[in-house]
Amino acid sequence: MLSDAIGSYVDSLSEREFDAPFIALLRLYGFDDIHFLHGAFEFGKDFIAKHTEEGTRYQYGFQTKAGDITLTEWNACRGQIDMLRTNSLAHPNFDANLPRRARFVTTGRLVGGAPLAAQQYREHLESLKETQFETWDRDTLIQMIGVNPICLSGSPLGMLQILGSQGEHLNFRALEGYSRTWIRTGWSSLNLRDCIEAAVIASHCRRQSRIDLACQTSLMLLRSTLAIVHGQSPVPESANAALGTAREQFRYYASLLWQDCRGRFLNQDELIMGDPTPAAFATYPVRCLTVIEILGMFGLQASQSVTEKELAKEIGQYVAQFIQFNIGVAHPVSDRWAISIVAPVLLLALFGMNETIASFIRSTVKWVADYYDEGNFGLASPYAAPTEEVAYLLGSPFESIVLKPRRESYLAVTILDLTSVLENRELYDLARNEFLAVDIVLPVLEPDDDASQYSLHMGTPHFEPNIPFEEFWRGTDLWKNAPHHHRGVATYYPERAGGQWDQIALSCILRDRQFVKSWRRILGKTA
After folding, report:
1. Alpha carbons 473 and 480: distance in angstroms, whole number
2. Per CATH, the architecture of 2-154 is what?
């Protein structure tokens, strides 16, 4: 069954989808000094790596392709393969003095006349006593990933259940629960197998039209890796590779969402008509918030790269338009979706889109306050199942629905934190006044710089049931309007190890705790 699942994974891969997990796969097989070179100046080499065999150090070059390779396609690739074996231009770490080995990697098979052409090419190189050349095809990759014990052979039943899940059974709750098994005691290079698991699961999510879950699976891998190496400085090299895999995998799947959204969903009907059932009242805002959360994180990730500032700005401009035309973004169905507004607001703030931020926050404040007004139940907690979210969302007008009223609102906390971080006095005072008027309680969960920042089930974070935000803007130390703005950890380990983006990504998985000082720093402000 696992081999069949791995076969489906390999068959469905696009060329670039395989880039991040291929690096992890090479590391599992003992390769080191691995570099991804794909681009205009790769000189036939998508990857380079070194490997020691029987005491001899070899310089490897890899050219990767997706799908079956016909004779025509083989002939087209032949020039790249020649460059792979003969050209020394690649990367400062390419050692032209080492004996070379070349690998042509395809997720399909050589078909038609291509196998004979590849065999003849290999025999020709052997007769010249040149670079050793081999092809790794679909069957080779399945053997490497699914059969070899150092990789996914013997994977737990939970993974097979996920790979067999469809529809409502493939959901965030199931994936998050399984991803906690990746958090172990002590880091070793074998933890890189989790990168392969995450890649296979994310690809399955993509094939089930759940790009959102593919992105979140990538962040779950980031979370588990940071949790294992917590406190280590420097981060072990193989752990850094896993973190890089998680970031690049998120980037790939988020870019697919960006390609799908770009220029679309900018009228009031297109996205809501995606679900013509009565359930659209709940699914429409969830889809809206999912889009802006992932694109917000993608934009923030791009903003950290010198070469991708324009991409980040373009995403920010799209998010601003999306918010303007989709009122669902301002209608979070429960506290679980509070964190969804953070990344897009920070992205908009990076590019000075303050009017959009103000309109968005005002609309969200009104939505939250209305649900906590007299006679209403409030909104469900961050831990609520979808059925409970819908019950709170729809329950207030119906006497037959019996619910315990909730006064707590993590959404309200998030809004007050955001307006404080942005130093927006007017929005802060508006939100605080509205929340006071309907007696909202403001719960805050503050993790220490320990295991409690990585999982709901680890460590003992500090819980304050009703944090005393200032009743009107004081902004002591420029922005600090609540005790948790003053106290607590200055910089958490994930930010020290990888940056503010990694720290913010943790909140996207936990959904109930946030790191406001990292928000400040990603905006270039002092905390």
Report:
1. 9
2. 3-Layer(aba) Sandwich (3.40)
